[in-house]
Write a structure and sequence with these properties.
By secondary structure, the protein is mainly beta. It has one domain: OB fold (Dihydrolipoamide Acetyltransferase, E2P). It has one helix and seven strands. Strand 3 and strand 4 form a beta hairpin. It is globular and about 40 Å long.
Amino acid sequence: MNVCILSGRLVRNAVGNQEKAMVFTLATPYGFDQSEGKERVAYVPCVMFNPPKDLVELLTTKGKGLMVELEGRVANSSYEADGERRFKTDVVVRNGSFALLKG
């Protein structure tokens, strides 16, 4: 089963595509680096298809820094750019599984 649950802060405002899709990056902490003396953070690219209009409005205008929790699936894709094959991994957010958290 391909399911992931993430919580973290939006790195910047989301970008909407004619309300059919919205993309954003989630900064998710995953441990403490003793040698660096700071928290480790993964930057996870996410996409949500057919998001609710009120969520698009909020995340594209006031999304940066918001703490959220979501459920989705890991999706891999590839494309060609400049004659070179490139690979991409995103989390596709399941509709109805997105929550704003306090903090």
